[in-house]
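General statements about sequence and structure are easier to judge against a single worked case. When preparing material for the folding task, we compiled for one chain both its residues and its backbone structure tokens. The amino acid sequence and the backbone structure tokens for this protein are reproduced below:
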Amino acid sequence: LEFDAATSVLIDTQDSTKGQLTMAVAVAQPDGATAATTANATYHLILAAGGTAPTGSTLIALSATTADDDIEGMISAVDAMLTSLTDAAATLGATNTRISMQDEFMADLMDVIDKGVGRLVDADMNEESTRLKALQTQQQLGIQSLSIANSNSENILSLFR
């Protein structure tokens, strides 16, 4: 099971291109002067490690002078970031679920193995118990046969007296 943690970092203070909220997001932004869109609008939601937006991108921040086209571009950038965050969260959730399933499977497997070993031990104990009973029975039969043999010799001796 492999999981690339770099894809789920929210804010990377070392490298702004790796954080979900610090990486640049390029969006197609409307251009108010024409009907076309400007595809080179790049935004950042959170400042990079140095405290400024990386070169070539604009920090998503509203002010009284923010143009409507810029606001639409910022909204598109935030939507793209949310989509990226949702994908990262889904991947993380799926990985977590797989790990939980494997953990439960291993716990069940260990229980089954423990039960199997217990049954083998019980089977060995039953076999050994049967052997012990057989040996005890043989011992009792030997003692009885010696007792009978001794009593017969005493009977024969009593006849000679």
Notes: The helical segments are 68-160. The radius of gyration is 42 Å.
